[in-house]
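Dear Dr. H.,

I hope your travels went smoothly. While you were away I took the liberty of generating a structure for the chain from your last submission, since the lab meeting agenda had it listed for discussion. I wanted you to have the full record in hand beforehand rather than looking at slides cold. The sequence, exactly as received, is reproduced here:
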Amino acid sequence: MAGNAQAFPLVCLHGRAENLGVTGAAATSFPIYAGAAIAAKEPLIVSVHDVAPATRDTCEQIIRELTQLGAAACSLLVVPNYHGSGESCADRQFVRWLRELEAEGHEIVIHGYFHQRPPSGRETIAGSLLTRYYTRGEGEFYDLGYEEAFRRITEARERFTAAGLRPRGFIAPAWLLGAEAERAAADAEMEYTTRLTEVRDLRTRESFHSRSLVYSVRSGWRRGASLAWNRTLSVALAGSPLMRLGIHPPDFLHRPVWNQIRRIVEHLTDMRSTTTYCEWIAETRQRRGGI
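The corresponding predicted structure, in token form, is as follows:
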């Protein structure tokens, strides 16, 4: 159904999706679901990035601590084949763990495919700085062509679905998603995507400004800058309709960074209700009378 934005509503309630009478290919292969209850408080979305068999132990500790801090529902960005180390869905224990998390209310999100972008001889200086140095070669979908982007997203979706998971969104590594890759994600029936400063509904084509808190920990100066920046940004964004926090496995390994994340989460969960991207998109559509 490439290119056809189905007029079916979306429902994502605490990790459960239910078929609302959708028939045909959409119902049997990748159904689109609807509606969620409107939360009383302003929402907070905490996303855990780079979830894969290789990072499971750290991600498991992150999720456990987030739950203790009140963030009981997170969007888990799962890499189908992390750095070419093997298909994530081939690891039965890993898949079982993801199913348990999904049943508990967490959301499974497709996060790139390999999470790597080989250097290209055709890239501009700006592109090279962004994809090689800023992201350390992980901007996989930054300038990926439509056909290859569609193939990777579709293959990931099919593998996840066959494993009993229900991915509704696609988020590119480092939030670097080119126009052709975004079109491919929509045609592959992904419901939404996100970038550093926005959440985009791929069905309604609406974009919602929302800057994510995120850390860079690859060097001492990056860690110091991230701590100062996120301390300021968390205050500046306090009144935002939607707050977002992105966490990567290495964040957990640096105590000053992780301690600040803990404080931010603990504060925000007192003020806001945690949700997932899927639930937030569903509630937003319902509120706006959309599909």
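Two observations you may find useful: Confidence is low (pLDDT under 50) at residues 1-8, 15-39. The beta strands are 43-51, 75-78, 107-111, 170-171, 192-195, 198-201, 207-209, 212-213, 243-247, 273-275.

With kind regards,
E. W.
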